[in-house]
Amino acid sequence: MTLFWWRRGGVGLGLVWLAACQPQPTAQHPALARVVPRAQVLADLTLFQRVKEAAHAGIYKYRTRAQMDSAFAAARAQATDSMTVTDVYRLVVRVTDFEGSLHNDTFLPAAVRAEMRAAPAFFPYPVKLIAGQLVLNAARAPVPLGAAIASINGIPARRLVRELGRYYTTDGLNTTGKTVGLAANFPEYYRLEYGPAAAFAVRYTLPTGPDTLTRTLPAVPYRAYQQAFDTRHSKPFDNAFFAGAPRKYTFRLLPGRPAAVLTVNTFDIGEEGTAGHKRYEAFLDSCFGLLRRSPAITDLLVDVRANGGGDDNNDMLTFSYLAPAPFRENKGSTVGFRRVPYRRYLSFEKDTAERAAAVREKEDELRTDFAVGPDGQPHQTAQSNPVFQPRANRFRGRLYLLISPRVASAGSMFAAMVRGRTAAVVIGEETMGGYYGHTGHGELEYTLPNTGIRTSFYWVDLQQDVPRRARQPFGRGVLPDYLVAQSRADFLANRDPQRACALWLLAAKAAGAR
């Protein structure tokens, strides 16, 4: 089973969803301009609801059945006879986001997305949310680097952040994680939500003064935006959030300090028993063996800020070198079905043996790892949820953990274990992955037949083996002890205030211990 997650693409109940202007069918854009009859829209939305109710165990994790029923009904109420596939996509996205699982994803048909991306209709430069402000993240642009955007085409920045954030799902009620999606995909989200634009009137203020200025930027094809994103100003600071770090994990001693830094940028290393997992285990054993033989090293800083998840059981393996007592991965987990439902709509190019093999694999896993409980639902068995023992050479000194909104899935599960089961000092920003649990393990993807929209989710609802904490509300990510984020000055200088805070705390603790 895998916990890896990477994004390829909350609705208020009673909210009126505005339909974007409809493009006229053209020979150049047949997929993008295709109008879907209302009856077909309703059929797809009904199937979408039935699939989620039957297959997604976490559908009512953060919302009640009545709330979800209302969200699905609100989507159906927007159906008309003049909707394109992208119009329907917006309805599905809103329900999906409202449900609240970072493993939820919604995909346009490939032909629709290709036509959309080819047209010069996108905002040309990357942006980033810094200290609550939407700022331009390009050094070479008509609008200066770090300019705080007040509005685009008359839409206030706060509304842009709220409405476009729906396209990037997070666990529960978390909002910090949405800033990761906005930083990477703002132009695509804007195009999906508000339709194509030939130009963008940007109202903004400069870091050096209060005056509001305006500049109109011409729209570009998506590939031009991607080039701008690849050369964004913040790349030295946040490249590991989006492109993967040069090294998946590193360890080093801090010169002149009684401290070491373990950085784990991903758990996408290989599942238990693979060569990658064994190499990682040998790496950890070497690092913590060195710490055990070096009593002068009293402090360990663990940095997982770029960790968006990975393979079993790399998160539990890592925690075993920090854990003060035995632990499990989960308090328990449940599945919403005994046999994979609506299998004819599973996303496969053809109804072949590949589909049957995928279904068989999932149902074999159900029989092996789950047993039907008194409530009629499959629950994880004790055999598939083993007790992990702390390693003999586990670290016993002062522990510090760096977290960020990018931390998700197995990454946030690890962070939650450190937060809940050790005395670690946690520094940074709230993770997008939940503290108390998430829906993970094994992806299911369905295609809605009339629109070709694909919806995917993971199918096991997990309650992580962490204690209740008064300062950890349900529905939120792992919360830090020290909330530290970049200021606009930090952003402009590409400074790392979280690491600076951790080093300051290390020094202060070391001085106090002398």
From TrEMBL:
Any Pfam family: Peptidase_S41
All copies of domain Tail specific protease, residue ranges: 291-435
Alphabetized Gene3D superfamilies for the sequence: 2-enoyl-CoA Hydratase, Chain A, domain 1
Protein name: Tail specific protease domain-containing protein
SUPFAM superfamilies the record matches: ClpP/crotonase
InterPro entries (alphabetical): ClpP/crotonase-like_dom_sf (IPR029045), Tail-specific_protease (IPR005151)
